[in-house]
Amino acid sequence: MAGLEIPAYDMPSLVTPTTLIRSQDVWYDDGNVVIQTENIVFKVFRGILASNSAVFADMFSVPQPTSVTGPDVYDSCPLIQIYDTPEDTGHFLKAIHDAGYYDVRTTSKFSIVAGILRLSTKYQVPYLRKRAISHLTTMFPSSLQDFQENRNSSPYAAKLGHYTGLAMEVVNLAKECRLPMLLPISMYYCAVMRLEHILDGVVVTNDDGTTRKIDLDWPEKRAIVLGKRALNYRARTNLFGFLLTSAPPAPTLPNNPAASGCTIPQRCETGKLKWLRQMEPLLSGDKCGPLHMQFDWTRYSADVCTYCVMDGKNKYREGLKKSWEELPSVFELEPWDILKTESLDQ
Q1: Across the chain, where does the E strand assignment appear?
Q2: Where are the alpha helices (DSSP H) in 106-156?
Q3: Which of 72, 74, 220, 238 could lock 319 by a disulfide, CB 3.0 to 4.6 Å apart?
Q4: How far apart are CA 261 and CA 251, in angstroms?
Q5: Is the pLDDT score of 5 beyond 50?
Q6: With contact defined as beta carbons under 8 Å apart, do 122 and 114 qualify?
Q7: Residues 284-313: pLDDT tens digits?
Q8: Secondary structure of 61-91 in the HEC alphabet?
C-alpha cells in the first residue's frame, strides 16, 4: 500500500471535550489512548493499534503530550483525531481489540464488513483486510466454481443478507478499497436490476429507521446499462446457441449409437424452435442474466433425441464458462487475472 496518505492526526479538535460522547461499545477503562472521530471518542490501547497497523505505529512515533490536561488530552490520555465515520471506526477498533468480534461465520451485517474493510485498508491492517475480502468474495466471487458453489449452497449469503442496492454498495466499496476483482460480479448483479434503480439509485432503510440513498457514479452506470445488452447477447449465443444450430445427423448405419449424431433431425429442429420461442421473452428481458438462467433439460428431452440433449448440455456448460471469462469485458474492465492481481497486491 505504498503511497497511502497518512491521515492528519495532529490537527486541533473542532469539538470541545465537554461535547464529546464516549462510545458505548469501545471504551476500555484501562486504555491509554483516546481516538476521536466527529464527537465520538473511543478509549483503546496504543500498543494493540501500533502492533497491527503500520499507519498507527507511524502516528504514535510522533511525541505525545505528557500533560494530563489540555486540548490534546482526554480522560488523562492522548487524544488522537481521525476523520472517519463513528460507525466504521467503532467496528474497526472493536475488531482489532476483540478477536471474536468479526467472525466471517457469524457476522451478518454488510455495514460491519464494509467498515472494517475501509479502515483496515486505510490504516494498513492486512489480516483484517484479508478477512473482509474473504467474506465478500463468498457472495461476490471471482471464479465460476465459487460462484456455482455459492449459488447452490449460499454459505454466507444469508449471513450478510440481501437487499436492493447491496450490489451497488459493493461496487462503490470495491472502487474505494482498491478491490477491482469484486467489480465484474457486483456489476453483473446491478445489471439484472430494474433500469430505474440503476439510473436513479435506491433508497434503503437503516437499522435505526433512518433512510439512505445508494447510488453509483456515472461511469459505472454507463457500463452497467450498456452491459445489459451484452449480457442478453451472451445468454442467447453462449448458453442457448445450441437452439440455433443443427446437430450433425447420425450416419445411416444399422444399430448406430445415439452419441454419434442426431437421430431424428426434423423432430429435433422443430423441438429446438419451440424452445427458442419459449425462451425469447426471457432472453430479451430487462433482467436477462446468463449466469443465473436455468433450463429444463427434462422437458427438453421429450422434444429432441438423446444426442441433441447431450450436445446441448455440453454446449451450455462451455457457454457458461465463456460467459464468465467474458464478464469483465462486458463492463469495460480488465481480464480476471489482472483484476485479481491488482486486488491482492495491496
Answers
A1: 21-27, 33-37, 40-44, 73-74, 77-81, 202-205, 211-214
A2: 110-122, 126-139, 144-153
A3: 238
A4: 7
A5: no
A6: no
A7: 877 778 888 889 999 999 999 999 999 999
A8: CCCCCCCCCCCCEECCEEEEECCCCHHHHHH
